[in-house]
Amino acid sequence: MDIGGIDANIQALQAMGTDQAVRANNIANVSTEGFDPSTVHLETGPEGQGVRVAAILQDTGSAPMVYRNNELVEGSGTDLARDMVGMMVNQNAYAANAAMVRSWDETLGLLVNLKA
Length: 116
Fold this sequence. Notes:
Layout: H1 4-28, E1 38-44, E2 51-58, E3 65-68, E4 71-74, H2 80-115
Antiparallel strand pairs: 1-2, 3-4
Helix pairs in contact: 1-2
């Protein structure tokens, strides 16, 4: 049995958790003037298995100009639709990887019981 597979699932859970936290921060600051949102960039894990965080980069692109208190100010650069959809994707990926970890746990438990 290849125990390395579970490491890839655990890595993916950590990466999805980091991406979820970054997106939640972006959404929390959707009304913050001049807020520059961040984006998590993922890469393939070691030996071509799993996924891990490559970098967390701040998007310093231009945010839309909005009127607040009769004054034109730079709004938040958060793309609410992109971050909400990304959170839904993360939720599904997290659930799939958590199910695999549970399956590994159950399988290893059965093997231990057979040997006992």
